[in-house]
Design goal:
Number of strands: 5
Oligomer: single chain
CATH class: Alpha Beta
Largest sheet: 5 strands, parallel
Order of helices and strands: EEHEHHEHEHHH
Distance between the termini: 11 Å
Structural class: alpha/beta
CATH topology: Rossmann fold
Number of helices: 7
Radius of gyration: 16 Å
Helix content: 40-55%
CATH superfamily: SGNH hydrolase
Amino acid sequence: MIHCIGDSHALLFKGCNTLDANLYEDRVPGFVSTNLSAHLAYNLCDPEHPMRNPILDAWHKHPADAVVFYLGEIDCRMHIPKYARASNMLTAVEQCVERYVDGLRQMESFLCPNVAAFAPHIYPNSNEISQSVGTWDKIMEAILMFDRALHEQYNRVASINYWLIEKKAWLKKSEYYIDANHLSVKCLEPAIAEVNRVLGL
């Protein structure tokens, strides 16, 4: 069993094209998914942060052979572009990823040794994206830099960004996304393949 824990993007691993809480159920064999709501990768390392207890509660409810954290999209959409104004994008990304990786390594001790990260994904250029800082180009730059930095700093990282780029998914919103930035179940098969690859399953 693999437990995916993250923000609302973790709902991809429930296997349903909805963000309607009344319809959440785990439909993917071998996976259970927990939506922590709007939390940041940046805060995973903070033992006093309000996200810590829900993570531990979710794990105790559904212990598994491995855990995948799906965080970082909110960091890239809002916080990294904001802090990049005071420094630069690379510095803001690296500082965020360093803290995230610290948190992932803590989770290896608290939950189980087999921890992986699912990198935040690119999404369509859309005026529907709410609560964002900067242009779509800047947000996409932050996401791809985050993906690259995460691969450099941590040894188990799953990502379907190159698959999405190959498919030109950002030009086919209705096919690959259920809204302005959440992936549809069309992306589930490559996502599961990536998770299995990095976990050695």
